[in-house]
Structures are given as structure tokens and as C-alpha cells.
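Design review, sub-item: ligand-bound model
Attendees: FS, YL, KQ
YL presented the inputs for the adenosine-5'-diphosphate complex:
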Amino acid sequence: MNLLFVASECAPFVKTGGLADVVGALPKALAPLGVTARVMLPAYPALAEVAAAGEEVWHHADLQGGPARLIAAKAEEIDLLLLDAPHLYDRPGNIYLGSDGQDWPDNAQRFAALSYAAAEVAMGALENWQPDIVHAHDWQAGLVPAYLHQSDAPTPPCVLTIHNIAFQGLFDASLMTSLGLSSALYTSEGMEYFGRIGFLKAGVVFAGKITTVSPTYARELMQPEFGMGLEGLMRARQADLSGILNGIDLQAWNPEDDPALETPYSARRLKAKAANRGEVLRRFGLQPDLQGPLFCVISRLTTQKGLDMLLDALPALVGRGAGLAVLGSGDKALEAGYVAAAHAHPGAVGVIIGYDEPLSHLMQGGSDAILIPSRFEPCGLTQLYGLRYGTLPVVARTGGLADTVIDANEAARAAKCATGVQFAPVTTAALEQAIHRTCDLYAQPTEWAAMMRRAMRHPVGWDVSAAAYRDIYADLVTTDAAQG
Ligand code: ADP
Ligand code: GLC
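KQ shared the predicted structure:
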């Protein structure tokens, strides 16, 4: 079966969050199941070298204001189709934001162009290859099903995965025509969202199947607290909606063989983790003889991630003799809040503002626990890396966090199945309680080590979930053939 993935990010080439990790890892996990996926991405500057070594397979004289071509290339075991359109993608810095921190003003055109080119490929624009299914990711690819829907030509079925319903790609309704969208699609049952165009909504309406990245988030999406205005539509499409947990790339994230670590270690050689802990303490300017647990945060700094609550809970954390290392960037007020906290608690709180992939690996290798107090979390990957590295996740009970961490309550401890700490409701008070419980557990070294070993054996790979995606693809192809 041939698949076309369409997305705006893909690790290791270009990444701002977990979407990239998933788009980079899932095609590799599908290959042994007989699914061959090509990944279509914009040819951002970070991909210039890869594109230069590729081969042009399609071109378009005027795609949203300039010439565009598709380049087939292979890198890091991933088959890529790169949409080279310099007027849209050849710019420095963040792939979504200009240097002023605001969305690029032409994001509608940039990601409509990506979806348009993908729809062309889906309908047979390439000489030697056509997908049986298109798999679109998030709002940036949300228009693919809309372009396919409005075409008279035979089109392959489409799967849309929602990685985060908080980002919907909302744009001015006056753009319908210039984006090449039929005005017939602009209805409340179609892609209109409170007077604007909704790229993600278009995907949800017109895709054959919708998935999201955990079973709990699939349920949450149908509720007003989480659905961000699309909860009614999600309920209407419930029969076609499934929640499939993300996995992680077990090769890229392997404590036994991770070049970013000071010392490799395994569930059988846990003591070697200490050297990594020492290096994290050093890098973050924390006291080298820290007695309590070393917590870490590796995150976008946004309200989604609940890190404002953690700022308020810091006195409790520091009061227990614990330490905190924070790596992140995003919201300016949160960045400033964490920098101020590091000054207020020298030696106990260390902060590095920025994005640093190798450092994130070292922190997973050297911390005792990872804090993820998210208000909502479709899946979350850092708790999965934490499990794999024996860095026990302390998480809010929401979305994929609820589905992947087993709370160390009395029953789970008696049954010897706990792998971390969960808290609810998602409030500062409950987070403080979770920090206290974690410190209490850490003070019992035998039980803590048992939890570490259990966490490290918890399955976090792609096997089960890749098979679930394969089944969805197979279903769609069969239904499509039956409908003729
Ligand atoms: P989200 O996609 O909502 O940001 P996830 O937990 O799914 O959350 O994925 C975040 C990914 O980005 C993880 O791979 C995490 O390690 C990485 N990450 C987040 N912030 C940073 C940072 N400042 N430096 C390095 N990696 C980061
Ligand atoms: C989104 C979500 C995150 C999820 C990631 C990959 O960025 O916020 O929870 O893990 O997508 O699916």
C-alpha cells in the first residue's frame, strides 16, 4: 500500500514539537507492515541540501504567487517529496513565525499551497507514483481533503490526524477564491468556522477517517472544555474518529546508545545514570550534592503546558530539597518568570531558554523525574522519553498523559505496576501534592529503583500503534473500492 504523508514538520530535519517526531518515526514503523509512505514537506532552508541532491518530479508555474516544484529525495531513511517554492518557504528563523514573533502573514497561502500540491499528487500528477491513501497531519495539511472533495476526478481516501485541536488555522473568509477553494464549501456544515475559514475544520469535515493521538484525547475532543468549538462536529464524526497513541523512535531515544549522554545505562545498570545527573546539575548551575530528586522540564513554554502553575509550586519543590532544570522557550512572560525563579533559588532551579535537541536527551538521561503539568495534552512525547530513560513522569491526568503513566497510588504500588505520578484536578495545589508524593517515593530508594526499571520496560515503541494505523488505511481502501 502506498501512502502520502502531508505535514509541516518532520524530525530530524525540521522540528518545533512532537508533530515532527511522529511524522519522522511513523513511516519507518509502517514499512515492515507493507505500507510505503512518502512524506511531503515544504522545502524550508533546513532542507536545502537534501533538496539539492533530489530530483524534480513536478512543477507548477504559479502556486500562490510564484513558481513551485516538487523534489523527490531520500534522507535519514525517509522518502521525501519537498515542495520547493522559495516565495513561500525560503525564509530564515521559525517555520511558522517571523522575527517579530507573529505568524507569517501569508501562512494561509503557504499551507494551502502544500495541501494543493499534495492533492495534485493524490490525483495522479506524478508520472510513476500515486498514493492509495493520503494521511494529512494537523491544520497545515487540513485543506488536502477539501481540495480532493471539490474535484470531479477520482480521488484516493484521506485520513486526518489531529495532533492539537488548539491550533486550527483560521483565516479570512475572503481568501476562499484565491486559495482555489469552491465557495460551495464555505458553509457551517463545511469549512466555515464563526465567519472565517477553518483549515483544520475542513480536514475534519472532508476526511474519510479522523484520528487523534491518544484514546483519552479522542474522548476529550467531544467535550466543550477541550474541543475548542469543534466538539459538536467531533461528536457528529464520532463513528470515524479513533485515538491511537503515539510511539517513539526507539533508536533515536535509547539510553544504552545515546551519543548525547555522558554515560550510557540500562535497566540493569541503573547506577551509571548518576554520571548523567552530575552533568545536568553542572550544565544548569545546580548544587552538585543535591539531596532530593532532580526534576526537569523540556517543553514549549505555553499555558497549554501548565508551566505557570509550576512557577507557583516552586517554593514547595525547593522546600523539599529537590532541584529543577528547565529547558524551553515560548511565551515571553513565562521565559522571564523562569529566569527570575533561577535567580530566586540559586543552586536549586536552573533554566536554559532555547531549543537544544542534544541537551534534551542529556536531561532525560540525567534527571530523576520529568514534570508535565499540562492543562491539556493530546499525547505528549516527553513522558514517553522519560519512561524509556527511567526518568519518572509526574503528569497531569489528561489526554495521552493519562493513558501512558501509571500512578503510584496504594493499589498500583501493591500490584507493582506504578511507573510515575499523576495528579488531578490540574491545579497548583494538586501539582504541589504530586511533587510531595514524588519526593516521598524518592526517599525510598528500593521502591524508586523498582519503578525506574518498570518504567524502562514499559512498551513505548510504535509496534501496536503502527498496526492500528495500517488497519485504518486498509479499511478505507476496502470501503473505497466497494463504493466503486
Ligand atoms: P508538543 O508537541 O505539544 O510541544 P510533545 O511532548 O508531543 O509536545 O513534543 C515535544 C517535543 O519537542 C519533544 O520531542 C521534546 O523533547 C521536544 N522539545 C520541546 N521543547 C524543547 C526544547 N526547548 N529543546 C529541545 N527539545 C524540545
Ligand atoms: C501536539 C501535541 C502533543 C503531541 C504531539 C504529537 O504537538 O501538543 O501532545 O504529542 O502533537 O502528536
